[in-house]
Structures are given as C-alpha cells and as structure tokens.
Amino acid sequence: MTAEATVAPALHVEALEKSFKELRVLRGVDFDVERGTVFALLGANGAGKTTVVRILSTLVKADAGTATVAGFDLSTDPAHVREAISLTGQFAAVDEILTGRENLVLMARLRHQKDADRIADGLLSRFQLTDAARRRVSTYSGGMRRRLDIAMSLIGSPPVIFLDEPTTGLDPQSRLEVWRSITELAHQGTTVLLTTQYLDEAEQLADRIAILHEGRIIANGTLAELKLLLPPATVEYVEKQPTLEDVFLAIIGTNTGEQR
Amino acid sequence: MTRRFLGDTALLTGRSLRHISRSPDTIITTTLMPVAFLLLFVYVLGGSIDTGSDSYVTYLLPGILVITIASSISYTAFRLFMDLKSGIFERFQSMPIARSSVLWAHVLTSVVASAISITVVVLVALLMGFRSGAGVMAWLAVAGILVLLTLALTWLAVIAGLSAKSVDGASAFSYPLILLPFISSAFVLTATMPGPVRAFAENQPVTPIVNALRALLTQQPVHADIWVALAWCVGILGFAYVLAMATYHRKVT
C-alpha cells in the first residue's frame, strides 16, 4: 500500500451543515474515518446522528460542507458513493412479506451478484438464520430482523457500512449477536460508521469515538484519549448513609434482643 | 443505464407481485365493492332504472370497471406508503440501482393487480348475464383504455402514497374516484339528471370513458367519445406523472 492510499480516509466530512426549516440540526460537523476501522458517533436522541448518516448515504443533501465516501465526492458523484456503501437504518428495513432468504436473494440480484443463491445461503448460515430462511420475515423476532438487516447490508461487500443505532430496541442476547457481527466486519477490513446512544456499545466496538452534541462534534478520539479529557480519578471519602434495610434490621434486632 | 433500469424494475416488480400473490385478500377486497355494486344495481335497483338497453348488466359493466380500477389503485398507494414507512424505500434509494425503478415497479404491479381484479369482475358479470359480441379489435381497444386509465390513476396513487402521513391517508384519496362514476352515465342516463348535475356529469372524465367502453362492448359507433376519453386519460396521466415525479424528487435528493 502506498503512503497516499493509507492517508486517504474512508470517510472525510468537513463543515457539514443541515437545517430542517428553523431547526439547525448540524452546525458544522467535521470528522475523518480511517479505512478498516469502526467509528462510533455518540450522541443523545436528536443530536443529529441519523442526519449525518442520511447525508453520507445520499438520502438527503447537506446545506453546506463537503464529504467524500471511499474517495468519491458526495455531491458530484453520488452514484459511485452508492456503489461503495451500504446502509442499515435505524429500523430494520426488511421486506416483511418475503422470506428471509428471498430478501437476501433480492438484494444480491439488485447488486448484480453472480451467484445470488449461494450468497444468500452463506449469509443465512453466518447469521444463524438457516432454520428460519423459508419463513416470512413478519414471523421473525426483533433480533432476527436486525441480523437479516445487517446480512442484507453485507451483500456485494461494500467497503463502507453505515449502521444507524443497530441495537436500539434489542434484547441483551440479540445485542451481543449484533456486536459480534460488527466486530467480524471490522476484522475483514470493512469501514464501519456506527451511531449509538449507548456508551458501552461505543466502548466495546469502536476504534474511535466522536461525540455529537448540538450539531457539532465536541470530542473525537480513541477511548483512551477521551478518558484523558477528564481529570484523573481522585479518591474521596464519603460518609455512608444507612439504607432503609440497615435501619429495618437494626430496629427489629434491638426489639428481639429486649424481648429475650 | 437503461439496461440497469429495466433489470432493476423487473426485479422490484417481481418483489411486489409476490406481495400480491401472498396476500390475495387485497384482490378480494378490491373486487368486493365493485361486485357488490354490480349485484345491488342489477338485482335491487336495476328493475326501476330505464336505460333503453336490453340488458342492464351490460349497460352497467363499464362504470363498474372504472370503480374496480379506482378501488384497486388504492392498494398501490398503500403498498408504496408501507415501503416508505418500513424504511425499505430508503434502503433501495441508498443502493447502486436505477432509483426511479422503485416507483416504476409499483406502477407496473398496479397495472397487473388491476388487470386481475377486472378479470374477476368481468367473470362475475358474465355469470350475471353480461354478453358482448365485440370483436378482437374492440376488446383490444377496451383493454387499451382500461390500461391507460389504470396508469393515469396509478400515478395519482403514487402522489398519495409518497405524501401520505398515515395508512388511512394513503388510501383515502381513492374514495372520490370511486364516487365519481355515480355522477356520470355509468348507472343511469345523464338525460334524467337535473340541469347542473347533468352538466357536471356530461363534462367529467368518467362519462366519455364509460360511453366509449360501452359502445365498444355493444358494437355501437364510438363517436367522439373515444377521443374525449383518451384525451382525459392522457391528460390525467401527464398531470399525475409530473406531479408524482415532483413529489418524488422533493422526497429523494
């Protein structure tokens, strides 16, 4: 790999702005994501995470600013951007009436893959959906839908994947499964932009974490770097207040003692 | 690009046709109302309606077919709305496909669904005594007008599907379309209506469409009706297509 290629980031976002009527959602967002890394965009509900993802996946246009995805300019070359990305939105965007397998085959055909059936079967077994492959998605659990959703995003091996709050609303078990798939993706060299409101999720998965707050990135670094932003941990002595349980036990203890 | 457009449209049409084959209840619901009107008007009200024709069911059928199309396209709006709501519309839009193929797939599916419903209604009419001595050319002309009308109303449905805020809103737009045939020559002769109503009935699109279909099916001369009917269909189609595309481009950048 040449020095230049390693320098060119998978995502380059500069001074991105977006307003919806009077509401200024993004007020100048800048960040870079290195190829093959997991980047977490952390923020409260309404911080603008989804707007960033929607802009980068060519669904809405930014009011100002520039961005490149896999080296392609978002505003002048959206068709190439769409070749390079895959979007897994906030809610599992799967076809409920089709079966899981049919969903995958449809995606593979739309992405002009030669062997759609083989790809579908491979993904079904990788995401533990083989048993449910021929059932309609409307019968799937939330976790299964999400896994199918992510599996659909992997077809055609796009170099950049956007995952918008991939574990919101999932039970702990499914959440771990999704985490495992994301880690696996990163190992294969896919660049992942992940949005989340769960701090532990960012902590677990991301190489770098950016905090989006009121339309701007207010912090951006590795977990270790972000921890350094806080003053070093200090030791404090705090007087321990008795809990109701302590009080309760103390009282009945004394009473029984007196009666004896 | 054209090849990709055709390929993607074919794939996505296959997808929504599968939706129809997996929920045949939509076809049943679509045909239920027109068939009910057919039964009601032929066996309950028809006895006291004088249209000057031998068979009321034959007189009535063209108008019922217009109602069938209007009722069928409300499901097109519904299917499009559900795609938007589920997020799969956005997923398609973020993929390297010909983006407008998503809309065209819904339009083609709408034509197929409407053709199925029309076939069901015509079969019921045949059971009720509808007969036509129309030749192949006349039947082709009937089919052509029906397809054109379906396309025109489907693009109206696309506008509704793209801009609706709720499921009910997505299909509610078809109610006026279903009622429009009542104020036309579909059920009774317009000559029996009071002045202003008659003026409306004779100058709204359903009357020339129904008259042209009826003339073709009963081997009567079609006069100018067929050209007025075609003009209305093409006019509505053009208007709805432009407006639907504008709505679409406002939605997708």
Helices, strands, pairings?
The complex is a heterodimer of chains A (260) and B (253).
Chain A: H1 3-7, E1 11-20, E2 23-33, E3 38-42, H2 49-56, E4 64-69, E5 72-73, H3 78-84, E6 85-88, H4 100-110, H5 116-126, H6 142-154, E7 160-164, H7 172-187, E8 191-196, H8 199-205, E9 208-213, E10 216-221, H9 223-228, H10 244-259
Chain B: H1 2-22, H2 25-45, H3 56-86, H4 88-93, H5 101-127, H6 136-163, H7 167-172, H8 174-179, H9 195-203, H10 206-217, H11 225-251
Characterize the structure shown.
The complex is a heterodimer of chains A (260) and B (253). By secondary structure, chain A is of the alpha/beta class. Chain A contains ten helices and ten strands. Chain A has a single domain, classed as Rossmann fold (3-Layer(aba) Sandwich). Chain A has a six-stranded mixed β-sheet with strand order 6-7-8-3-9-10, sandwiched between helices. A four-stranded antiparallel β-sheet of chain A has the order 2-1-4-5, covered by helices on one side. In chain A, a hairpin with a 2-residue loop joins strand 9 and strand 10. In chain A, helix 4 packs across helix 5 (116-126) and helix 6 packs parallel to helix 7. The termini of chain A are far apart. In chain A, 42% of the residues are buried. By secondary structure, chain B is mainly α. Helices cover 77% and strands 0% of the residues of chain B. In chain B, helix 2 runs parallel beside helix 5 (101-127). The interface between A and B is medium-sized, with 29 and 21 residues.
